[in-house]
């Protein structure tokens, strides 16, 4: 019998255990070497001190969940060779982004009222864009302005503006997500993938690679179809992995209204277990194309572009490793537990390796790239 994963009634512990046991997602296929920045622990300590100083957490419980994102471990895997201070700036935004996402995108008043979310998000975005602070900024806008000031000190103007544009795209994607939720609309697969390329936050996360690594990719390369395709595929792979990582957690909180599984179940008859398998196949198809295109493209890129594309690969692997162990996804109580160190079993081969025919993403397989 299909599970109604988007229903609003709370799940009993027995129901949650039954559903979680029935998921049994296959091991992830990810033939990319693992790497982590050696400054990760030091950056984590500095970032937690900044969180306390910034004051955007509403209470100790919210602070505990923000710290439980292990954002320093997360981004240290994206930029394993970055200097400590540039890495710290990126990590601060990741902590901020998770806090903002939890408080204003996935839960609370703004998450279900588009007319309230859009002006709030525009004010937050403006705090990132302008070089001067404003007394009207709320705690989230103030903290984001501080992160922007750090970026301005270390990044080239074009790198910073690329991040600003990516950040705007993220908030636009979240607006689409909230509009769907408010209207009770479940997107189809193509619309979901299009929305998730922005709403997952992957675009600003990967845009920080240039800032963290201190290498500016020439516009002719960064704006080329091949680098756009690689970037979008990295975002899509990570977003689908995050849907997988967060599913049990969202089921326990009854927040699973829009994810790859609810999308698949809304359009096809079948069980949640079958949707989990179909989603894993979809993810592997995208990753396999990324791996092939990356291998074919790297030899003809500049050193800065090669570093960026390597960062995309590090991000896919790092996001997968982080998501399989982070308390944000593994904890089931009202407060987060400790991070696990259980060895991860990786799949030796993909579940599927055929091109996608969805018009929005089929161009990733274009032979002209």
Automatic annotation (TrEMBL):
Single GO MF annotation: terpene synthase activity
Swiss-Prot/TrEMBL keywords: Lyase, Magnesium, Metal-binding
SUPFAM superfamilies: Terpenoid synthases
Class of this enzyme: lyase
Any single Pfam family the record assigns to this protein: Terpene_syn_C_2
UniProt KW Magnesium keyword: yes
EC number(s) given by UniProt: 4.2.3.-
InterPro entries associated with the record: Isoprenoid_synthase_dom_sf, Terpene_cyclase-like_2
Membrane spanning residue stretches: none
Necessary cofactors: Mg(2+)
Gene3D superfamilies assigned to the protein according to its UniProt record, in alphabetical order: Farnesyl Diphosphate Synthase
Stored PANTHER family: BETA-PINACENE SYNTHASE-RELATED, TERPENE SYNTHASE
Family membership: Belongs to the terpene synthase family.
Protein name (Swiss-Prot/TrEMBL): Terpene synthase
């Amino acid at each position: 019998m299909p599970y109604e994963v988007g229903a609003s009634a709370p799940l009993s512990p027995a129901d949650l255990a039954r559903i979680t046991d029935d998921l049994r997602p296959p091991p992830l296929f990810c033939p990319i070497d693992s790497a982590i920045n050696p400054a990760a622990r030091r950056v984590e300590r500095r970032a937690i001190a900044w969180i306390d100083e910034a004051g955007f957490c509403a209470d100790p419980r919210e602070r505990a969940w923000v710290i439980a994102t292990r954002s320093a471990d997360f981004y240290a895997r994206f930029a394993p060779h970055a200097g400590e201070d540039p890495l710290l700036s990126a990590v601060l935004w990741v902590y901020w982004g998770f806090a903002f996402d939890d408080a204003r995108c996935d839960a609370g008043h703004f998450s279900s009222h588009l007319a309230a979310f859009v002006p709030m998000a525009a004010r937050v975005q403006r705090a990132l864009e302008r070089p001067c602070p404003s007394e009207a900024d709320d705690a989230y806008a103030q903290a984001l302005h501080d992160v922007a000031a750090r970026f301005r000190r270390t990044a080239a103007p074009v790198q910073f503006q690329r991040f600003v544009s990516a950040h705007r795209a993220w908030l636009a994607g979240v607006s689409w997500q909230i509009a769907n939720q408010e209207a009770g609309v479940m997107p189809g697969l193509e619309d979901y993938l299009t929305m998730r390329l922005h709403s997952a936050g992957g675009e600003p996360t990967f845009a920080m690679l240039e800032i963290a690594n201190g290498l500016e990719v020439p516009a002719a390369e960064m704006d080329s179809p091949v680098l756009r395709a690689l970037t979008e595929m990295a975002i899509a792979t990570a977003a689908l992995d995050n849907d997988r990582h967060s599913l049990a957690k969202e089921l326990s909180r009854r927040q699973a209204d829009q994810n790859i599984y609810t999308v698949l179940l809304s359009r096809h008859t079948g069980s949640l277990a079958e949707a989990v398998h179909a989603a894993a196949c979809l993810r592997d198809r995208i990753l396999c194309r990324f791996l092939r295109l990356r291998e074919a493209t790297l030899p003809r890129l500049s050193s800065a572009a090669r570093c960026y594309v390597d960062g995309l690969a590090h991000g896919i692997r790092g996001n997968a490793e982080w998501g399989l162990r982070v308390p944000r996804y593994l904890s089931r109580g009202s407060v987060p537990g400790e991070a696990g160190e259980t060895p991860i079993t990786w799949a030796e081969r993909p579940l599927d390796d055929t091109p996608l025919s969805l018009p929005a993403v089929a161009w990733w397989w274009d032979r002209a790239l």
